[in-house]
Please model this.
Amino acid sequence: MNQELPVRIDDHNIDSDDLDQNALTVVDTLTEAGFDAYLVGGCVRDLLCGTKPKDFDVATNATPEQVRELFRRSRLIGRRFPIAHVRFGRDIIEVSTFRQAQHDDIETDEHGLIVRDQAFGDLADDAFRRDFSINALYYDVNSHTIIDYVGGIDDLQHKRLRFIGDPAGRLAEDPVRFLRAIRFAAKLGFRIDDSIVALVDDVADRIEAIPSARLFDEFLKLFLSGYAEQAWLHLRDTPLVYSLFPSCDPDSSLVTDAMRNTDERVAAEQPVTPGFLVAVILWADFESRCEQHNPDNKPGMMYDIATDTLAVQQQHIAVPRRYSTFAREVWQLQPRLVNRQPRNIRRILGHKRFRAAFDFLRLRGAADPQLATCAQWWEEIQELDSTQQQGMIDALPRNTKRKRRRRSKSRGNRQPSPLDAQG
Ligand code: ATP
Ligand code: MG
Model:
């Protein structure tokens, strides 16, 4: 351990006006009750980097129960690490009690994975149990100083993501920390230290042991926080991409385009849904299964193929049903959008997934001029009134091929194949 630490820095760029009022209330209440309390983690890191923090976390020497007693609108959460959530309307301030890095009360499994950690400690202990040095900076709001036990300021200045302690051990405790590294690198434009990158193969194996529900949470943070494209570009260069999405195509331009598009939507404060990204990431697999087993796009068969495709993914990331259903509906609309059967157009326009399916088709159009023309058609028809829409519908070429086939087969409900597309 470095003898000169902790370093206290009062020459920094954090402006008190940028601090969250609710977080300050929490710190003040704790301090008035005789406890120590600091802002910590992502908020301090982001403020020092000049970006707006997503949320504010507080660290204190009060136990979770003591925190709960001080704040009427608070509750304890977390099985592995009990912490208090203090609620202010829709805003939540997370208050964690100082914890130790090494202690008998920390339970690990046979691989060193932390399964339970209730060992409280002091501020220094708390700093060393955190993941990256840049995430272990504390801000004392009363003296306006940063407290750094782990060389976090230096790493921040060098734009470097470095673990506190031995990288192999830290990743064994929690392999999700690698995904966090990717996320922070993407968000801040930092470099992941070579000592971490070197361990990626091992992490790819270990991550399979992480509960799929936690991986879904991490998936949301990676791709819906406004820097999905960078996160994806990092991730797809590692074997972790297959640990998370076993059937994806890392080279797919559809995925990269969709990630960029998601970032643009987040920046414009437009709604984004994980269902759309699930549809995008699994599309290559779904499409090739369809080509192989369902070239005629029979709806029932398409439904089953979607179920199979999603079931494989489900074993790795627990995608809630509403999002997998969303992905399935977007997929099922694709051949219908491409084929443009005159009698179906209005029903498609009124479909609750039309807009998402249309966005999806537009993304697919980036790699296929015929699909781009088709997407353009749907773009135009949406803008028109009903009479003008009818004009566009009437101008569609009639699908004679479809009629011929129908006569030759018994009256099935064959959906046209995308190969029938009318430019
Ligand atoms: P952001 O909120 O911007 O996503 P963050 O760094 O605040 O980033 P949180 O998940 O909110 O991330 O966690 C708060 C802090 O808790 C982190 O900064 C880090 O100090 C600590 N922490 C979170 N997850 C871990 C982990 N898996 N291992 C060790 N420390 C962690
Ligand atoms: Mg945070």
Q: What stands out?
A: The two ends are 68 Å apart (CA to CA). Residues 85 and 94 are 5 Å apart (CA to CA).
